């Protein structure tokens, strides 16, 4: 039975091939007819070799060298320093670790006049950890975010004294009289207005040690580099020179002498991370884009305070660099 079935298929295939040849136009040459007959025979042969009930598949196209070369040489996505800086800070600001979150928020103060940085800091005012809220208020003050004044006024009523004090300091930097209510309470222990802003923390305000922790004790006012507080200060008391050098770096931020820039560049590579963070902050505040290469190197520092400070400094100095061509063009047009 199998032989008869195959023989029937062969006969049908040969008849189909004959019909193809018979339908060719008379103008086709003998060689053309031979080619058509050959093609028909190949089709018949394919039909014979294909099991019943299946559809012959077209031969796969060979993969050329060009396709392989294209896939192999396809360029990988490379982040610019600016994009990498935002990635670092975005990840830290929204991370789970409180200390990292607070530090990343705090250094946003190095990125003034930037809506993205301001939004991150404002959102952090609602964080469930007071360390982060304190850092947010401090950052908004440092970036002179006047648009955030209403939110900072709300922060004056925070249940944590450190947050209220940071908000008051920020408002005072922006010459908003709301800050005076908090300072009055700190000085006298009494309420100036009908609503006590930090009256619940009155006991804390009378404790010198607690006041030191809040940053009001004379002698440690230079400590808030990159969100560094009293806890960090206690860990470096064995090293008497680092806090002093860090304080000097902060003061030198406003020194116009070019030699100071070189000194800060060197201090950015100091073995003590507190000095590195302070030097990077000073370089950012000096506003010289020529320090970009130096600052960018420390975005991979093993200390998060240094790493985040470097990232914020990159953003600030990059913005200054990008604005200079526009400024020169405007001056040229005006002239």
Describe the 3D structure.
- The chain is mainly α and 335 residues long.
- It has two domains: 139 residues, Leucine-rich Repeat Variant (Alpha Horseshoe); 117 residues, Leucine-rich Repeat Variant (Alpha Horseshoe), CATH 1.25.10.10.
- The chain is 63% helix and 0% strand.
- The chain contains 18 helices and no strands.
- It is globular.
- 32% of the residues are buried.
- The N terminus is likely disordered.
User: Cα-atom Rg, whole angstroms?
Assistant: 37 Å
Helix content: 55-70%
Percentage of residues in strands = under 5%
Task: Note the total helix count.
Answer: 18
Structural class: mainly alpha
How would a textbook summarize the main sheet? none
CATH arch. level architecture of the largest domain: Alpha Horseshoe
CATH topology value of the largest domain: Leucine-rich Repeat Variant
Brief description of this entry?
This protein has 335 residues and is an all-alpha fold. The protein folds into two domains: 79-217, Leucine-rich Repeat Variant, CATH 1.25.10; 219-335, Leucine-rich Repeat Variant (Alpha Horseshoe). It contains 18 helices and no strands.
Record the SSE blueprint.
Layout: H1 2-22, H2 30-49, H3 65-72, H4 81-93, H5 98-106, H6 115-124, H7 130-142, H8 149-155, H9 161-173, H10 179-188, H11 202-205, H12 208-213, H13 230-235, H14 241-251, H15 258-267, H16 273-286, H17 292-297, H18 304-334
Helix pairs in contact: 1-2, 4-5, 4-18, 5-7, 6-7, 7-9, 8-9, 9-10, 14-16, 15-16, 16-18
């Amino acid at each position: 039975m199998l032989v008869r079935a195959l023989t029937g298929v062969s006969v049908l295939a040969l008849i189909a091939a004959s019909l193809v040849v018979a339908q060719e136009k008379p103008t086709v040459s003998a060689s053309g007819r031979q080619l058509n007959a050959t093609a028909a025979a190949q089709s018949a042969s394919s039909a014979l070799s294909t099991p019943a009930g299946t559809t012959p598949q077209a031969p796969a196209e060979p993969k050329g060298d060009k396709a392989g070369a294209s896939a192999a040489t396809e360029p990988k996505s490379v982040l610019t320093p600016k994009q990498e800086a935002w990635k670092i800070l975005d990840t830290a600001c929204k991370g789970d670790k409180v200390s990292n979150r607070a530090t990343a928020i705090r250094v946003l103060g190095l990125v003034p006049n930037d809506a993205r940085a301001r939004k991150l800091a404002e959102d952090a005012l609602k964080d469930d950890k007071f360390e982060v809220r304190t850092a947010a208020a401090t950052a908004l003050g440092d970036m002179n975010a006047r648009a955030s004044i209403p939110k900072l006024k709300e922060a004056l009523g925070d249940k944590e004294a450190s947050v209220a004090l940071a908000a008051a300091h920020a408002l005072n930097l922006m010459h908003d009289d709301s800050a005076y209510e908090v300072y009055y309470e700190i000085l006298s222990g009494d309420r100036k207005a009908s609503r006590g802003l930090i009256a619940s923390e009155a006991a804390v305000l009378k404790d010198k040690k607690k006041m030191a922790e809040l940053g009001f004790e004379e002698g440690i006012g230079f400590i808030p580099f990159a969100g560094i507080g009293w806890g960090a200060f206690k860990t470096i008391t064995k090293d008497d020179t680092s806090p002093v050098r860090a304080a000097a770096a902060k003061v030198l931020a406003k020194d116009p002498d070019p030699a100071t820039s070189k000194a800060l560049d060197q201090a950015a590579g100091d073995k003590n991370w507190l000095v590195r963070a302070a030097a990077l902050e000073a370089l950012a505040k000096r506003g010289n884009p020529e320090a970009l290469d130096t600052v960018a190197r420390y975005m991979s520092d093993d200390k998060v305070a240094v790493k985040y400070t470097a990232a914020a400094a990159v953003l600030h100095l990059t913005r200054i660099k990008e604005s200079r061509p526009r400024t020169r063009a405007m001056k040229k047009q005006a002239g």
